[in-house]
Amino acid sequence: MKLADIPVHAAAPADPLDGFRWPTDDFTRTPYRVFTDEAIYQREMERIFRGPVWNYLALEAEVPEPGSYKTVQIGNVPVVVSRNMQGEVTAFVNRCAHRGATVVRQEFGRAEGHACIYHQWNYDSSGDLCGVPYRRGLNGCGGYPKDFKPAEHGLQKLRVALYKGLVFGSFADEPPELLAYLGTNIVTHLDRIFVKPLKVLGYHRQRISANWKLYFENIKDPYHAGLLHTFMATFGVYRSTQKGHTLLSPGGGHAVVYSVTNTDSVESVVEAYQGTDNKYQTDFALQEPGLLQWSPDFHDGIGNLIVSVFPNMVVHQILNTFATRQVRPLGTGAMELYWTYFGFEDDAAERTAARLQQLNLVGPAGYISMEDGEAIRLVQQSITGESRDATSFIEMGGRGPIVDADHVVTEVCTRGLWQQYARTMGFAPEAAA
């Protein structure tokens, strides 16, 4: 038999993940396997971050002028957010259309165009190819074929949508309409914060040795906050005894969690923290009380607010600090959290100074994110090597329907996350399979 006579079987092998089933249809269990399985991670990059979602990219205030740009990461894809020379915000993959080298190597900057250092392919501020060295060859040698068309070799574009100074991007050809994707609860609380032009105050980058979804679980879980963070409970920044709400988007993947400061009593706090490991310290005091001096920006009493948008955005207000946090996966067992702190353009110098002082308490070197990072690292460490059927237990607040709650003693937002995650990944619940 000749080589050419051997039949070619083009059918792709079956994906073993197609048989993966979620253990419960109310998402009160999460298989630990989703935090450690490389095949699942690769499907996440394709179906979630490059799928029909809106990824948070940046603040418009970070690309204020024509030519301004910022490099970010969506899933495992490097992306440039750019305000082009016509003033429009665009986004494109930061990978040369020629041989794949990184084109923009600086984190921030301003330029009318970008050149790949490898072969000097030149792109404009929208990512369109505008120049190729030796296109016609040199001295009659080389050059590209006559049908080479620069317009067909620009950098891959993302669809971009803006809302209240937030920039979102999608790889999908037909992503959902942004406000419908976010849902009423998210839009309402973004409207509350993004009320006027922003001023960027600074950045933090935090590398955490844990899967990116463990962080998203953490941020949607108010149950842990008053128990893990001694600082918050002791000084009343956040306690589960305070009045608050947990609100979800229609698909469950986005959430709002907030508490209203000074709505609990000493008696209720003492009772709630009986039996905990010294999480409420009545004899603790600050040497510099001004550190927690709160001059509310709004008049609703909310001192702690977390808005999370699947799959990669968190917006927080903790007292007078504001930040967006972009979740950047770095493999099954690592991630980076990218913090952008902001205030408002019309802030007085004293207000800006107070925000800068307070933000040190909440970032990776403070008393909140450092502890969150360590907590989820402990989870990652402990579940690695677990059996494929092992699961977590998520029933604080009850089982059943995934709906809003008028308190913060619940894990319902965590169950909402897993509901949207499983649907996006094509993991049907066992009971519905």
Could you explain how this protein is built, in words?
The protein has helices spanning 38-49, 178-182, 184-193, 212-219, 222-228, 230-235, 266-272, 349-362, 369-383, 412-425; strands at 55-59, 68-74, 77-83, 89-93, 108-110, 113-115, 122-124, 129-131, 159-163, 166-170, 198-208, 243-248, 255-260, 302-309, 313-318, 321-329, 335-344. Strand 16 (321-329) and strand 17 (335-344) form a beta hairpin. A 7-stranded antiparallel sheet has the order 11-17-16-15-14-13-12, with helices on both faces. Strands 4-3-2-5 form a 4-stranded antiparallel sheet, with no helix packed on it. The protein has a 3-stranded antiparallel sheet with strand order 1-10-9, with no helix packed on it. It starts with 37 loop residues before the first helix and ends in an 8-residue tail after the last helix. It is α+β, with helices and mostly antiparallel strands and 433 residues long.
Mean pLDDT: 93
Derived from helix and strand composition plus strand pairing, the structural class reads: alpha+beta
What sequence of helices (H) and strands (E) makes up the elements?
Answer: HEEEEEEEEEEHHEHHHEEHEEEEHHH
If helices are DSSP runs of H or I spanning 4 or more residues, what is the number of helices?
10
Q: How many β-strands, per DSSP?
A: 17
Which bin fits the share of residues in helices? 10-25%
Low-pLDDT stretches: none
Form type = globular
**Taking Cα atoms only, what radius of gyration do you get, to the nearest Å?**
24 Å
Strand order of the largest sheet: 11-17-16-15-14-13-12
Approximate strand percentage: 15-25%
In whole angstroms, the N-to-C terminal distance is 45 Å
Main sheet attributes: strand count, strand direction, barrel closure: 7 strands, antiparallel
